[in-house]
Every structure is written in C-alpha cells, then in structure tokens.
Write a structure and sequence with these properties.
Elements (H helix, E strand, L loop, with lengths): L1 H21 L17 H11 L1 H5 L17 E4 L2 E4 L16 H10 L14 H4 L4 H11 L22 H10 L12 H13 L3 H4 L17 E2 L6 E2 L11 H10 L12 H9 L3 H13 L5
Antiparallel strand pairs: 1-2, 3-4
Helix pairs in contact: 2-6, 8-12, 10-11, 10-12
C-alpha cells in the first residue's frame, strides 16, 4: 500500500508538472516588432476592420462615443458571461501603460502583460494571423483615443473555467493561426481572406464550435447557434448565401439585403465597421466568400 501510495503521489507530481509546463503562457518573440513604427492613420482602418469598438465601447454607445473604449458590454456563452474590459488609453483602468508588445501578446497570443491567460472571448487565434505592421498601426491609433477611467468588471464564470491556467490547455488544443482557405487565390481573394479570417474574425460567429468551444474548421462559415441563445448565426458559404459579389458589397456598405431587408443584431456594428473601409476591401470580402467551398 505504501508503494502504491508513493507511486500515485509521484504520478500526481509528474502530471502536475507536465500540466504546468504545457499550459504556460507563450508570449511572442521579443524581436517581432523590432524596427517597426506604427502609423495612426493606417491604424484607424485596422481599428474598424478588427471591430474593437463593437465590443469595447460602453453599452449603448453611439456615434463618437464608440471611440471611448470603456468596456462593460456583456457576452454570454456556454461557459459563462464575459465582460469586455476597458481598453482606452487610461493608464490605470485601461491600456495606457501598455507597450506595443503588450498589445500584440494580448490580441495575438491571449497573454496579459502580467503573464496570465486571456479567455478566448478575445479572438486571439484569429488576430494571430495579422501582420506585425498592422498591429503596430493599430497600437498607434489606440493611443489617440480618449482615455476613460471606468474600472473593469470581473467575468461571470464558474469553476473550473474560472481557473485561467486551464485556458492554457484550451490553447494547446486550438492553436491554429494558419489560414483556412487554401489554394491559388487572386489578389482580391487573398486580401479578402486576410480581412475575414484575421482582422474581422468572422468565423468566431459564423463557424460552429466543438464541445470545448473550439472552431470546427471542417464546417467553416457554415453558421452556428447564437451564443446569446437567441436564434442562429447564418451560413455564409455559397451553399446558402446566393448573393452576387455586388450584392454582398452593397450589404456591407448600406446594410440592405437584395430583398431590401435591413441588417440586425450584432451585424449592425459589423456593417458600420465595413462601411468605413475602402470599397476595394468590401469587394475583397465578397470575392473571398464566393471562393469558399459550400458547406450545407
């Protein structure tokens, strides 16, 4: 019995050590942004494409108030309700004290400045596909926004999801920063892939998830249950979306469908963001969507 007990203890210690090593935060290489200088002008377009204000503006904010990234919006999920944090340039409650690598580690690796895991309510495996220059430009633009001293609120999640170290295990299972659409792409299709799969993180809503919350890439963009529990997010592959490229561009510009219905729900904010991008970018998104394999 003593030997059995000792064996169990040794196995437990080894298992705990392996778990601790495997789930450790993995920040980006220190030289990733060496020699890069961010441009706030270019960063404004990145800001709209990545949808920062859609999640981090205060609940109910409209117009210019959406540039005050005070946080507080609630995002329900099967694992609990996540509250968007303050990412304004406020040095105490926001990210005013962050460096460029701090921002990059947060949005591309899900690692906080103090080395803790962020929950994947922040779509860092989509943002991981972003180019370093775009991240540097986004950082430069964020510094120009109004600071706000609204304190952050804790997420409303229970055990075991409340243990952030567990997120490290989730990352191991879902660490995939490769582009999903492969093959020979035109310049427009490649640009559309970059916008859709990286900056705009469209799959985070439009792709179904497995039991652990990872994206099911075999059903890429085939629609999914709405995390709020109300309705579904539509299938936007050619198997369901029959709109022409021009009709997709019009929808992303005005919010009107070919049937003269209007955009609703969270897509209102998405269309607002897309409408601020050059028309060539909206056309690139349309070209990408038409290139996708149809998934029923």
């Amino acid at each position: 019995m003593r030997r059995l007990f000792l064996s169990v203890c040794v196995a437990a210690v080894i298992g705990a050590g392996v778990f601790w090593a495997v789930t450790r935060p993995d920040p980006m290489p220190a030289d990733t942004f060496a020699g890069l200088t961010g441009d706030a002008g270019r960063g404004e377009a990145v800001f709209h494409a990545t949808g920062c204000a859609s999640c981090h503006a205060a609940p109910g904010a409209v117009g210019e108030a959406k540039l005050v990234l005070a946080g507080g919006q609630a995002f329900p999920s099967d694992f609990g309700t996540f509250l968007a944090p303050n990412i304004s340039p406020d040095p105490q409650h926001g990210i005013g004290g962050w460096s460029l690598p701090d921002l990059a580690n947060a949005i591309q690796r899900g690692v906080s400045p103090d080395g803790a895991h962020y929950y994947p309510a922040l779509p860092y495996w989509s943002y991981a596909r972003m180019q370093p220059q775009d991240v540097a430009d986004l950082y430069a633009f964020l510094q120009t926004l109004p600071p706000d001293a609204t304190p952050n609120q804790p997420h409303l999640i229970g055990f075991p999801f409340s243990i952030r170290r567990v997120v490290g295990g989730w990352k191991v299972l879902n660490n995939n920063a490769d582009f999903v659409l492969e093959g020979d792409l035109t310049e427009a299709e490649a640009r559309g892939r970059y916008i859709v799969e990286a900056m705009a993180h469209c799959a985070e809503c439009h792709t179904p998830r497995d039991a652990l919350g990872g994206l099911d890439t075999s059903r890429w963009m085939a629609g999914a249950p709405n995390p709020s529990g109300q309705g579904t997010i539509p299938n936007i592959t050619p198997a369901k979306l029959s709109w022409s490229e021009g009709e997709i561009v019009e929808y992303l510009t005005s919010g009107f469908t070919p049937d003269y219905d209007s955009v609703g729900g969270h897509m209102v904010a998405v269309v607002e963001n897309m409408a601020r991008l050059p028309e060539s970018d909206r056309a690139a998104v349309a070209a990408y969507l038409k290139k996708l394999p149809g998934v029923e």
